[in-house]
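#random but structural
TW: two for the price of one
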Amino acid sequence: MTDSIGHEPEDEIEASRAPLLDHLVELRMRLIICVVALFVGFGVCFAFADKIFLFLVNPFTVAQQLLSVQHAGGSHGPFDLLLALVGLKDIPTGETKALGLVYTAALEFFFTKLKLAGFGAVVLTFPVLAWQLYRFVAPGLYKNERGAFLPFLLASPVMFFLGAALVYYVMLPFVLWFSLSQQVSTVGITIQLLPKVSDYLTLVTSLLLAFGLCFQLPVVVSLLGLAGILSSKLLREGRRYAIVGVFIAAAILTPPDPISQLTLAIPMCLLYEISIWCVWLIERGKAKDDNKRNEIVAA
């Protein structure tokens, strides 16, 4: 089969083939660039580790402020909080006490900042890492495959940051509000939430990664559809099973409260529907290309 100008598609790969040693040299160069980028990103993130950690603590501040207002007015429940977090309801601000995060080992906060810098370095340098991976595998792809792969390379970080934004602005404040609401203060006894800095960072990074990866669903499904592994018909027929799987995954990945689970499950169901639409568009485009090729061959 030939393309629109009469060239064999395999010629594109043959023209880009190189000896094994050249591939190894290129792989080494790509790995060196990735390692240097990670070191630079780690240094930058560690230099601003305190400010980054304070930025991650902001949802805790929001949760404590909303809890203080709730205690003062006594009329704001979890759904009111959820509406306030998404900007659909105004809750007046009130006086809040300073947050209390602790560390119980001498170097715990230092190692926490190291972990934070490592996590931040991967996020910060992801475009560089993804681009180097693409540049290494691109010679082994057809020209049309390289063109089709680039949109997914751009969509992946966008979807990850959308999931991370949902965690930062909605999920984390609600989870922390729920945790703060479990505190007990009576005569002679006080049960107070004093999270360790390392535990708080683990909670934040776990939720960010969970939501960011779950939001890759349209990207992964579209790639599988592009490869011919999945079809829009199969996705539509498996919708009911996918919804059950989404709610099970939400129950595992989120804290044990129904609103947190719905916060992940509802967007995931919407993303599944978007995935079906994306695969259908890919199939439609493939059908048009096949028709054009058949017309050229017939001519």
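TW: number two ↓
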Amino acid sequence: MLSKYKTQEEKYEYISKQHGGYYRHHFTDHAYLYNLYFPPKAVFNHLKANINNLVLNYPMAQNALAELVGAIINQPLERIVVGNGGAEIIKILSGSLAKKLIVPVPSFNEYVNAAPEGHVVEFPLDFPSFELDVDKFADEAIKVGADMAVVVTPNNPTSLLVPKIDLIRLAKKLKPSKCMLIIDESFLDFADNNEQISLEKDIAKYPNMAILKSMSKAYGICGLRIGYLLTANTNLASSVRNGVHIWNINGFAEEFLRILPQYKQEFEDSCKVVKTDRDIFYENLCTIDGMTVFKPDANYIYCRLPDIALSGPEVTKRLFIKYNIYIKHNVGKTQPDADRYIRIASRTKDENATLIDALKDVMYFKSK
């Protein structure tokens, strides 16, 4: 493949417009948010050993896939819809089913981007804490006539968790207005006591609730594209299922789901390592003078740059050009002072330490 850039600056301009394929361009990726310690080599060896059948044959369709996911999360298949990543399900929810969607901001942009113009209400999180006041959120949802409300927990980009008790209260407040609550738990595996704070086990109690989960993040399988929706609302499940293609999941993803229960302990161990690295990273980021660092519940950290530092876009660009390290600035998110914020994915301890040194070096540099 011919190089699409001649200088590091051209490389940055090219990469900043891409949505994946980063491994082809040889830089340290502190932008995308996935588990570096899973899957283990045994999973790759299994996929390689079965590559002929996985390539040559049709994969299974929705019911059989839902049964595989159900075995992982201990839920009946009729409550599950399996998507080609969480993005496919978001497209159906936001783009087709929701007549009026309300979402706290800043958050994952795809919920807004996938919706038709005029179908979304953006609800600002409390600033500067970025905490969600669920009572105010519920009141606004009812006021604007929303039929679908989304909460990402831990949130992206803030990495902040919404307490389980608050989400239950939110679901109850929305129920009389027939508003579905979509809870995106894609990063919950990196939170402490995640099994106690997840609402998956309680889903049958709340017919106006659905859990959405992208498996790419926690399981480190961005290229396999697997996500699922879990709900006890049979009408919602049926509507989402009708929106997916008959063979929306490829054979490699199907096989991964089939063998995943064998690696439960390895997965849990990998999440512990992620959390340990992240916590050390957080503590070290807190030592930077003037930096506001939000205590993370996910595998990434949200920061407000010091007032005397360069802007988020400028710091991001300089970090890439000088050190070949890529992070995300927050321009494009709906929030005050968006250009002062950055989001940094936690990687290994050594890579995190290298990033902090590099960040200190470029934050205050002026143009030569």
